Amino acid sequence: MHKENIDNLRKLFIGLDKKVNVEGKGRLIPINFDNAATTPPFKRVMKMILETSEYYGSIARGDGKKSQYCSDLYENSRKYILEYFNAPEEIYTAIFVGNTTDGLNKLSNILIEDKNDIVITTRMEHHSNDLPWRNKCNLKHVEVDKDGRVIVEEIEMLLDKYQERVKYVTVTGASNVTGYVNDIRRIARAAHKYGAKIIVDGAQLIPHKKISMIQEDINENIDFLVFSGHKVYAPFGSGVIIGLREIFNEKEPSSKGGGTVQIVLDDRQLWLDTPERNEAGTPNLFGAVSIAEALREMDKIGFKTIESNEKELLSYLIKELKQFEKVILYGDNENINDRLGILVFNIDGMTYEEVGEALANIRGIGVREGGFCAHPYTRRILGIADSDLQRYMSEVGTPGLVRVSLGAYNSKKEANIFLDTIEYICRRYAKY
Known about the structure:
By secondary structure, this protein is α/β, with parallel strands linked by helices. The protein has helices at residues 3-10, 43-53, 65-84, 100-111, 152-162, 184-193, 245-250, 285-301, 303-321, 352-363, 375-382, 386-395, 412-428; strands at 20-22, 26-28, 31-32, 92-97, 118-122, 138-142, 166-172, 197-201, 224-228, 239-244, 261-264, 269-271, 327-329, 342-347, 365-366, 368-370, 401-405. It contains 13 helices and 17 strands.
């Protein structure tokens, strides 16, 4: 990406040039290479929140003019989100939740009614798309290959084996550890062949690629999609489930109370239709507005621009890091066509904690280190077998890696500062 373009893009975000104290260095502009965890918000998003606060009122339960304004804004945000993901209102609904974790827990509580129901997931998953399903159903885990990619053939084999007993296939759209993008269309075709529904954890995918719920081949449609606002350049505390309207209307809500019922009698209640039945309590207006506005901004930038910038930086970082003798890169770093702007590494002679601390303390560079809430997957990337885990932990500690995750606004200048800092760390701190 041309420097002029990235400079213009960076102007859309708040706080990128806000200096922080770095011990012994004074105040420096930090570098955020931890976008897989949290992204900085767009200026337009924060402006919209401020504008909305001037008309602050209750949602759907007040007749005052501010309440009417807020109710309309809330529902228009929902409508835009459905349009953004090509999700027709007659088929899908959008339910506002706290974040992806909240949304996946809500789905597991709503959808699973029989512990014998089979749900297929993978060993690539974030804990939020693994733990909520455990002990609620008959959960089957599909393995990853030596590079860390999901073995889709195993999903197809399990579907063929159990057929109509499989109710859901729940899979991450893209890994938060390696950045691999899964073949969602192929998985959807396989699931629908046997009458199962597909659930996509879109937390990592949505900030980097435009996703459509409806495909030309209806067998490739996505049934449920979940994502977080704070990974798409909006603030914390908001997320969305996009899912099949008919199924939500058939199921009892997971949270019950105000706003979910048409009427409550002494011994029973009549639920409202979705999405109201699935949004108990006073809705998060600012969350809904911020997500819709963030998606609008991403659309304006264009995903061709976002993807090309991130892929260019990823390729550059991988190429340069390969030159450092002490840097150990993980995953497939030759074929990166199916990867987002994420890479993981360690430095020989240092723990991942030490590397993360050094990057922050030397130059204010933010990365993520550890298991990234994907411990089974991280162990596989490191090549640590279950039988060796206890010995590994006693000798080395908890398995982990250092992760660099890129956002739409990251620049080659930042990449070069990072590389210079890594070179210094290898020379100064790594033990022989």
